[in-house]
Inverse folding.
C-alpha cells in the first residue's frame, strides 16, 4: 500500500453527514477510521446539500486539494486542484449530474484532467430508490470530486412536472407516459440552481450522443442560464465502451464500482421504470418475465379484483380511497397498489428525437391508474368541442415534453390553457384493477354536464324528441345538396 501523502492544513475535505432513521428521526454517521486518519473535522461547516428531505443535511467544504479514498486497497492520494489549463480548455468549477456508476465516476477525473476544474457531483432524488444512494458520497470523493450535493426533488417532480402532464393528457406516440422525459428538466433545473449556489461556471452530464436525454438536459440549461458552459464527455472523449472506461478508471486510480452490471439499460423514478437494451433491441423478442421490477406478471396477480377511488380537483389528483395525500405519497401508494395487480406494462417501438427508432418496455402502474381516472372524469366535465381541442393539443404537449422543451413558452402557454379548461374537472373515479387491466366502474362530479332528465329515453321539457327532425334536415343539408347535384335533381 502506498504511503499516505502529506496533506497541508488548508487542503483537507471537512465533512459532516446527518441521515435519518426509518422512523424519521435524525442520527449522525460518525467518522470512519480512514476519515479520522485524514484529519477530517466533524463540525458545522459552510455549504450544504439536501439528502432525503430538509432534515437530512450533508455539509462539505471544498478546499485546494481533494482527497480520494480508493476502496480497492484503502490507499489515500491527494489530487491537487489544477490552476492551469486542462487538455481541452479551462473551467473553474463544474456541476456534474452524478449517479455513482462507472460512467459518471470516470467523468469526474476526465473533467479535472481536460478542463483543470473542480467537480461538484449532483444527484437528484426523484424516487429511484434508496439503494441508489448507498455509498454515494464515498464514491464521489474517491473519484476526485470536491463535493456531493443530493437534493430530494420527489414532491416537486410529481407536483410541478408529472401532474401538469397528467392534466394535459400528454401521451407520446399513443403509449409512452413520458416518465424519463419529465424527470430530466426537474434534474437539470436543480443543477442550474446548484451551479449558482457553488459558483460553478459549467454543468456536465453523462448522456450519450445517441439518446434523447442530452437534448433534454441541455435545452433546460439554455433556457434557465444561457451563460453556463455545457460539457458532454460522451461527445468528446475517446472512451468507446465499458472496457475503455474501466481502463481509464484504473489509470487514474478511480475505484471501479463493483456492482453487477445489468444487461438492461434502466431508468427509474417515482413515475415509471424503463427497460432498454439486450434482447429488447430486437422488436421481435418477447420480454423476459424476470425483467420486470415494479409490477407482477398479470397472470400471477391476485384472482380477486381491487377497487381504488381517485379523488381529483381541477384536473389534479388529491386523494386515494378518500384519504388526501401529498403528490409524491399519492403516486407511491398507487404504484404499490397497481404493481401488485400487474398494471401499467407497455412494450413499444418509439421514434427518438434524434431520428432513430428504439424499442423500450415501461412499467407505470400508478400513472396508468391516474391517467385512466383523469380521462374518465373529463367525460363528465368537458363538452365535445373542448375535449377535441384538448386532445389535439395534448399531442403537441407530449411532443414538446419528449423533445426536452419543458421551459419553452409554447408548452407553458399550453399548460395555462390546460389549467383553465380543467377548472371544473373535479370529482371522483373508481377504478377496478384486475390482472393487468384498469377499468372504470364509477365516476361522479359536482360539475357534471350529464343530466339524467335529458339523457333519459323518456320525453321531457328540456329535450323534445320532435326537434330532432329539423336538426337532422339542417345538419344533413350539404350532403343532400351534393347528392341532388350528382343525380341532376
Amino acid at each position: 500500500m502506498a504511503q499516505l501523502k502529506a496533506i497541508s492544513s488548508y487542503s483537507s475535505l471537512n465533512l459532516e453527514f446527518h441521515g435519518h432513521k426509518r422512523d424519521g428521526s435524525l442520527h449522525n454517521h460518525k467518522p470512519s477510521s480512514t476519515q479520522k486518519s485524514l484529519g477530517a473535522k466533524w463540525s458545522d461547516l459552510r455549504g450544504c446539500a439536501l439528502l432525503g428531505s430538509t432534515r437530512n443535511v450533508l455539509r462539505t467544504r471544498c478546499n485546494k486539494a481533494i482527497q480520494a479514498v480508493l476502496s480497492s486497497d484503502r490507499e489515500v492520494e491527494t489530487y491537487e486542484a489544477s490552476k492551469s489549463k486542462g487538455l481541452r480548455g479551462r473551467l473553474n468549477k463544474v456541476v456534474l449530474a452524478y449517479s455513482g456508476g462507472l460512467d459518471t465516476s470516470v467523468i469526474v477525473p476526465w473533467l479535472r484532467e481536460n478542463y483543470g476544474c473542480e467537480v461538484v457531483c449532483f444527484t437528484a432524488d426523484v424516487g429511484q430508490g434508496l439503494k441508489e444512494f448507498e455509498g454515494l458520497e464515498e464514491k464521489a470523493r474517491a473519484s476526485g470530486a470536491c463535493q456531493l450535493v443530493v437534493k430530494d426533488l420527489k414532491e416537486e417532480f410529481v407536483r410541478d412536472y408529472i401532474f401538469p402532464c397528467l392534466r394535459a393528457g400528454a401521451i407520446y406516440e399513443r403509449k409512452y407516459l413520458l416518465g424519463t422525459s419529465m424527470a430530466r428538466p426537474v434534474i437539470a433545473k436543480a443543477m442550474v440552481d446548484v451551479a449558482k449556489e457553488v459558483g460553478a461556471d459549467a454543468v456536465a452530464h453523462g448522456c450519450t450522443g445517441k439518446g434523447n436525454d442530452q437534448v433534454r438536459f441541455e435545452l433546460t440549461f439554455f433556457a434557465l442560464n444561457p451563460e453556463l458552459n455545457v460539457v458532454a464527455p460522451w461527445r468528446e472523449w475517446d472512451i468507446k465502451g465499458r472496457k475503455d472506461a474501466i481502463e481509464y478508471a484504473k489509470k487514474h486510480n478511480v475505484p471501479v464500482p463493483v456492482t453487477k452490471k445489468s444487461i438492461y439499460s434502466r431508468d427509474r423514478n417515482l413515475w415509471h421504470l424503463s427497460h432498454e437494451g439486450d434482447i429488447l433491441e430486437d422488436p421481435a423478442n418477447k420480454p423476459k418475465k424476470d425483467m420486470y421490477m415494479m409490477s407482477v406478471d398479470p397472470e400471477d396477480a391476485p384472482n380477486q379484483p381491487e377497487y381504488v377511488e381517485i379523488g381529483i380537483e381541477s384536473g389534479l389528483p388529491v386523494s386515494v380511497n378518500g384519504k388526501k395525500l401529498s403528490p409524491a405519497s399519492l403516486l407511491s401508494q398507487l404504484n404499490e397498489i397497481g404493481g401488485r395487480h400487474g398494471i401499467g406494462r407497455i412494450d413499444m417501438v418509439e421514434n427518438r428525437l434524434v431520428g432513430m427508432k428504439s424499442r423500450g418496455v415501461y412499467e407505470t402502474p400508478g400513472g396508468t391508474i391516474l391517467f385512466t381516472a383523469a380521462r374518465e372524469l373529463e367525460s363528465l366535465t368537458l363538452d365535445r368541442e373542448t375535449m377535441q381541442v384538448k386532445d389535439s393539443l395534448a399531442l403537441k404537449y407530449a411532443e414538446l415534453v419528449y423533445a426536452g422543451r419543458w421551459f419553452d413558452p409554447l408548452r407553458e402557454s399550453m399548460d395555462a390553457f390546460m389549467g383553465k379548461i380543467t377548472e371544473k374537472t373535479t370529482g371522483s373515479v373508481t377504478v377496478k384493477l384486475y390482472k393487468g387491466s384498469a377499468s372504470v366502474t364509477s365516476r361522479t362530479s359536482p360539475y357534471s354536464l350529464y343530466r339524467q332528465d335529458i339523457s333519459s329515453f323518456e320525453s321531457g321539457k328540456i329535450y323534445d324528441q320532435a326537434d330532432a327532425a329539423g336538426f337532422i334536415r339542417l345538419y344533413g343539408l350539404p350532403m343532400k345538396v351534393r347528392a341532388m347535384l350528382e343525380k341532376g335533381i
Notes: The chain is about 35% helix and 25% strand. Residues 1-82 have pLDDT under 50 and may be disordered.
